[in-house]
């Protein structure tokens, strides 16, 4: 069915209140969008971080009386008569099919491909990880995941043990196993991530070489030849005393989920333990690597 959306420009402070007003007047969903397309990073637990200039977008069924909705909203104390808004009609689409059509196999480094199950594998002789987007973060489309995959592809992982700290979908651990690692260990705080990693490992035939732990259940004596952590700058700094102990002597460390502007502070948390490489950047995100 077709849809109508009403977009109201407001401030972050007023967005939640206007969201409630849209829902009270028949919106089936409401989303917030930064007017200037500026992303917000690292909200506090349970916090909905909003922008200084925010578009509040209400989605309505096409048969809604738009004039009546606008009239009702005009009586809201934050809006008033003649408030700035935009009305748009959305064409009806098979959104799932359109989304699937735009998801293609992606190559990382020299050998590695990440392939959705509904697409043919481009190179049967390459290292192919079959992975469909799901409940947990990590498909290769985000620059931080791409940076980590490229780094893993460039390492000699043959016979090595790899820890994926904050494993999400399991994409990094599974890629490491397919690239020759003998064993991988995935750690995450989210039970859905553990389940997603387990399912993806089974799909790729590596479940017997992947151990998965919720963070509070991991063994105390974990150690690996390679440790990769694609999370966020804040947790990477806070968890540096723990993460730094995971690579064995001469072990490799790869960190991502970091904005380029945050790299210096994260580097400082690891510089005493690791010999760090030059920072790699991709679309304002970066990767920090080093050797213990």
From TrEMBL:
It catalyses: L-lysyl-[protein] + 3 S-adenosyl-L-methionine = N(6),N(6),N(6)-trimethyl-L-lysyl-[protein] + 3 S-adenosyl-L-homocysteine + 3 H(+). This is Ribosomal protein L11 methyltransferase. S-adenosyl-L-methionine binds at residues 145, 166, 188, 230. It is found in: Cytoplasm. Methylates ribosomal protein L11. Belongs to the methyltransferase superfamily. PrmA family. It comes from Acerihabitans arboris. One of its GO terms (biological process) is methylation. One of its GO terms (molecular function) is protein-lysine N-methyltransferase activity. Its main location: cytoplasm. It is an enzyme of class 2 (transferase). The lineage of its organism: Bacteria, Pseudomonadati, Pseudomonadota, Gammaproteobacteria, Enterobacterales. Keywords: Cytoplasm, Methyltransferase, Ribonucleoprotein, Ribosomal protein, S-adenosyl-L-methionine, Transferase. Its EC number is 2.1.1.-. It holds the Pfam family PrmA. GO terms for cellular component: cytosol; ribosome.
